[in-house]
Design goal:
It is a single chain. By secondary structure, this protein is mostly helical. The protein has a domain of 176 residues: MetI-like (MetI-like fold, Orthogonal Bundle), CATH 1.10.3720.10. Helices cover 74% and strands 3% of the residues. The chain is built from 14 helices and 2 strands. A two-stranded antiparallel ribbon has the order 1-2. Helix 1 packs across helix 14, helix 2 crosses helix 14 and helix 3 runs antiparallel to helix 11. The model has no long low-confidence stretch (mean pLDDT 82).
Length: 288
């Protein structure tokens, strides 16, 4: 049983790490908020005065703002649906006894360790290139015209690339959850005459609920900030511009750090709204 002195010592030892972590988070956030109220052009004279909420008004009234929010939510939602659905399927398949099971699991999980920029370049040049890409060769083989993936189907292309990168993460978490399922429950259900679908729906899926909510929460946090895949492939064209990429474009075009900071605050607000919504879902599942 811990004493008051030991608890005080523990807090004292943790204090430097906590202070460093808070500084690492609060200093950039504070600077972002301060810059958002300024006209700050580093390449054209630097600080040019406080302008209040003008940056916020300029950013939110832009014709590209709401389409970028919509594109962000579409990408996040689509990737979550694909990775969770396919992740459950892959996790069930990888849990079955097979020859070379360890090697197969490593190959399935490997894409998660590929850098987003490299992943996007591979898909852009090896698969989606309209001349030499694998998809183009397949289209010609079946007598169809090649699809210009990054222009004619830019959003599905981005969703496909990002889903391929995040599917291993979902599969790994869900596979771990499936392996913790009591085999005696499965055997009892099978002896009672439950078929494979019934066992999955009434036994496996409820058992995976917590793992699914964790996958959704973690992936959403990272997917809201998606940037590299879009920068390498479409560069925000053809309706694939997300809020993060719009912030990058606004800063690059206007060289106005204040305008970009206002966009960053909007991105933080959007992320917190989504996070609060997801935390309610996670909380309900964890309380069951």
């Amino acid at each position: 049983m811990s004493t008051k002195a030991s608890r005080y010592t523990a807090r004292l030892m943790l204090a430097p790490a906590v202070i460093l972590l808070l500084g690492w988070m609060l200093v950039p956030l504070t600077m972002t908020v301060l810059f958002s109220f300024q006209r700050y052009l580093p390449m054209r004279g630097g600080f040019q005065g406080w302008i209040g909420f003008d940056n916020y008004r300029s950013f939110v009234t832009s014709s590209a703002f709401w389409p970028s929010v919509q594109a962000t939510l579409i990408i996040v939602g689509s990737v979550l649906v694909i990775t969770v659905a396919l992740g459950i399927l892959l996790a069930i398949l990888l849990d079955q006894p097979m020859w070379g099971q360890g090697i197969v699991r490593i190959l399935v999980i490997a894409p998660f360790f590929v850098m987003p920029t490299v992943s996007a370049l591979v898909w852009k040049n090896m698969f989606m290139d309209p001349v030499n890409g694998l998809f183009s060769h397949l289209s010609r083989f079946f007598g169809a015209d090649p699809i210009l993936w990054l222009s004619q189907a830019s959003m599905p292309s981005i969703i496909l690339i990002v889903s391929w990168q995040w599917l291993p993460f979902a599969t790994l978490i869900l596979l771990t959850a499936i392996q913790s399922l009591d085999s005696e429950q499965q055997e009892a259900a099978e002896m009672d005459g439950a078929g494979p679908f019934s066992r999955f729906w009434f036994l496996t899926l409820p058992h995976l609920s917590r793992a699914i909510t964790i996958v959704i929460l973690i992936q959403t946090i990272f997917l809201l900030a998606i940037f590299a895949e879009i920068f390498v492939t479409t560069q925000g064209s053809f309706g694939s511009r997300t809020l993060t990429y719009l912030i990058y474009q606004r800063v690059l075009e206007s060289q106005n750090v204040g305008l970009g900071s206002a966009g960053g605050v909007y991105a933080i607000i959007l992320a917190n709204i989504v996070a609060l919504f997801l935390m309610r879902i996670v909380g309900k599942n964890l309380d069951r």
